[in-house]
Amino acid sequence: MAKKASTHRMAAKKKPKARKSQAAASPGEVTGEEGFVWTRKDLLGLDELSPQEVVHMLDTAQSFEEVSTRSIKKVPALRGKVVALMFFEDSTRTRMSFELAASRLSADTLLFTAKGSSVSKGETTLDTVKNIEAMGVDVFVMRHGESGAPHMVARQVTGSVVNAGDGAHEHPTQALLDIYTMRQRLGHLAGLKVAIVGDIAHSRVARSNILGLRKLGAEVVVVGPRTLVPQAITAMGCEISHSLDDVLGEVDVINMLRIQFERFGGGLFPSLREYHQIYGMNGERLARCRKDVLIMHPGPINRGVELTSEVADGPNSCILQQVTNGLAIRMAVLYLVTQSQGDRRE
Amino acid sequence: MAEMKHLMTAEQVDRALDRLYEAVVEALPAEGRVAVVGIRTRGETLARRIVERLAADEPDRTVKLGVLDITFYRDDLSRRRGAPLVRATEIDFDLDDAWVLLVDDVLMTGRSIRAALDALHDFGRPKLIRLAVLIDRGGRELPIAADIVGKAADVPHGQRLQVRLEENDGEEGVYTQDGREEEA
Lengths: 346, 184
Fold this sequence. Notes:
By secondary structure, chain A is an alpha/beta fold. Chain A has helices at residues 51-65, 93-104, 125-133, 149-154, 172-186, 204-215, 244-247, 272-279, 283-287, 309-312, 319-338, 342-345, and strands at 37-38, 82-87, 108-113, 139-144, 160-166, 193-197, 219-223, 239-241, 253-256, 294-296.
């Protein structure tokens, strides 16, 4: 090729420094600090995390999002590690999401489900976990019907424990993916007003969301019938409303929780039809919201109960985006906890 | 903290980069797709400068810029404690059959380059990969060599070598310092 004498030097040009966090700056927004290092071997809940740790998790997930766009959707970060998926309680999407996240990081996975296992033969949770750990497991992703079960296990094993939902206590990865999706769609978290609608009393998703959102400067209002909203929830720093119609116009995000038929035997509200009339999202209610309001749902949806198909499949809905983001969040969680195991292992 | 000594001044860095750039231009293929991929953080800066200068000198040629974060591919992942923030890899083009110039600031053990080669292959099968570094400080632990070197300097294993670039550090220069060496 023809070589020309170079007319430009490669000398430096002054450039603005890269932003510390990828989130847009806004007053009160928590952004990643230069040089911050994640050091927890477990992720048990958002309660014990600092705002900086939550943001570190979100920023790490943002980097993992790119992996899923490659022709080879895999990185060798967890090569040789074993992730045990311990589902003492049923789950399909959370389990699949963790399973795919682990395989994108090149980890091997083991699946344990309570149905048809030693649990039905009377083995305790701790014995079950200890036996599986003896096979050489690095991470336990654990879903359990009892609040605090992952915390109890974390104190007894050397591997990492990730809470994939414990009783009515916490579901940290769901809240992280919800908060991640809000930041992605709206650009910031500080100052946002988020409504969480439905069965607050039985919801670990609600608790983790409130904890995470409050740490990052968002306001939360929980909405539902008196039977499903405990008064004491205000201690977590949120407001209570018993009328969805009252809050529609003033919120940036509406997170509709699933009515969990399996968790209680009815009697807490008269009928699904009445619930939908008072607390369900439909096109008419959506029209009274801010134009760019974000409609979220952790799934699975009961169409026609929490929201109508018109809302669930409409432009304000980010329900499928939540599922996609869940993968990046879970890759980030598995990566971060395994990077912090050193102090227990050596 | 031990005293930092100048290994290269701003002018010396400038001259080394000029030599490196001339060698890159010489090595460029006559046709075909070309990509310059920098390893975060300072390799990215150098790759960006090369692409910008090529764009000015040879406006007819399209040269893609890629950025690689090799954290997930490192062979010392399981030895580290704690996890600093990992930044995204940005290669939004096809590497299949492309001529790729891999750029980093310092070459030492060769482990970063091994990791970068693995990472690149997850994006496709390049026709050829060349390696350009600002400084080859010696101390190889793998059979890896650079094709284009701005400056070769034997820096003892125990010394720390720090490349400072305007975009990242607000100044240009290379320093050495006694104490723990940095993986390069």
